[in-house]
Amino acid sequence: MLKIGDLIEVSIDKIVFGGEGLGYYNDIAIFVPMSVPGDKLKVEIISNKKTYARGLIKKVIKPSIDRVSSEKISFEDYHGCDFAMINYEKQIEYKKEMVKEVFSRIAKIDNIQFDKVLLANTIFNYRNKVIEQIGYRNGKVISGFYKRRSHEIFEVKDNYLQPKEINKIFTYLKNRFSEKKLTIYDERKHKGMLRNLMARVNSNGEIMLVVIIKGNIIKELKKILKDTYNKYKNVISIYISINNNKTNFALGNKNILLYGEETIKENLFDINFNISPTSFFQINIEQTKKLYELAISYFNNINNKNIVDAYSGTGTIGMILSKQAKKIFSIELAESSSKDAEKTAKENNISNITFINDTVENGLTKLLNSDEKIDSIIFDPPRKGIDKNSLQEVIDKNINELVYISCNPSTLARDIGILVENGYKLMNLSIVDMFPQTSHVETVVLMSRV
Ligand SMILES: C[S@@+](CC[C@H](N)C(=O)[O-])C[C@H]1O[C@@H](n2cnc3c(N)ncnc32)[C@H](O)[C@@H]1O
Q1: I need a labelling partner for 416 at 20 to 30 A (CA). Which of 115, 179, 227, 320 fits?
Q2: How many CB atoms are located within 10 Å of the residue 39 CB?
Q3: What residues make up the catalytic site (predicted)?
Q4: Interface pTM (ipTM) of the complex?
Q5: What's the total number of domains in the chain?
Q6: Which structural domain range is residue 15 located in?
Q7: Active-site residue 407, yes or no?
Q8: How many C-beta atoms surround the C-beta of residue 216 within 10 A?
Q9: 0.90 cut: is pTM over it?
């Protein structure tokens, strides 16, 4: 019987959904984060159940040929990236395996074939949005990510995924915060001011900064942000977000524009999209272009179709489709995203699009029961997938063509399973690697009525 704290030797056989490696020790399944199939490891047991246990790597005894370093072993060593210990080509192989495994287990579809697997050219520093926790160490303001399963912050110099320019500006801000001895938010006492730093950067290198605080804006903070705005010409927008809640969610309800522009803009397919601090926008622009191009190519004959863009964010896919389609209906829950989308449509003279600021659960049902004829739907839901009733409505109304973009293969497989049971066929399935160095995978699927 294993106990917490035991040191064991284990060989890793495979990667399972969620990104952890799996090996066996006396028939007990041992899950090991940051491990690679082919590794022989010394592992310390940190949790123990009847049929399985979880352990952390203490030492790499013999590295897998796919491991990039046998010295770096922890989540923190890889800046919080749970696949960065695996060479890039192999990361893709494991993502394919994970998608195959969930489709077989959940959707009961075996041996899926991938239409396309679109790799990234830029595999580091690709993120266009960054949020860090602010903390305090040895009299200095620091920022970074929480260590795994802890609320201790770890700070890294040149973070693997973040744009270098943002790292530079964050360093400047933290030095100024330290100098002025601004207080740091303490989540246990619910006291102190500085909570998070957030930044967005667009393809032109323009930056939006958001400082998330509890309480009121004090003049020292305002002065630091004014100096930042004047010093860095590429910082085009600075907000303070007030978050007085006891929550892990970073942004607050009140977002106050201090300097510069209300939104940052990103150009995709010749449309300038507006993005506010709280709006959703895909975090990897190079891969987003490929993702949208591929998803749009899955529609058969867009011209003269009425298409719904469900879970539409800032309206990107719908507006790109609107160039060819007859009519687009975009449904999005978040008010700021919907407002950004409306602004973008106006500025780019797009008029054949209707924005519905509502849940897909309500908005889609109403639309499908209205006089509008709907030919096709593109879904891009959050991780929890499509709500069951909405899916049933789509099935009942016999919508022939569904494109489904998903950031969570297990809820995708669940929803595809339901569609297949109800007379749809899986026509195409592709992967776009939006999140290199992490186990996250973006999948695009085309379903049609048979
Ligand atoms: C993965 S994002 C996709 C956004 C967009 N398609 C894009 O590519 O930028 C999911 C979006 O769904 C929205 N959302 C979440 N739950 C929703 C719901 N129940 N109804 C409508 N929109 C929802 C989120 O605010 C977010 O903008």
Answers
A1: 320
A2: 27
A3: 407, 407 (nucleophile)
A4: 0.99
A5: 3
A6: 7-73
A7: yes
A8: 10
A9: yes
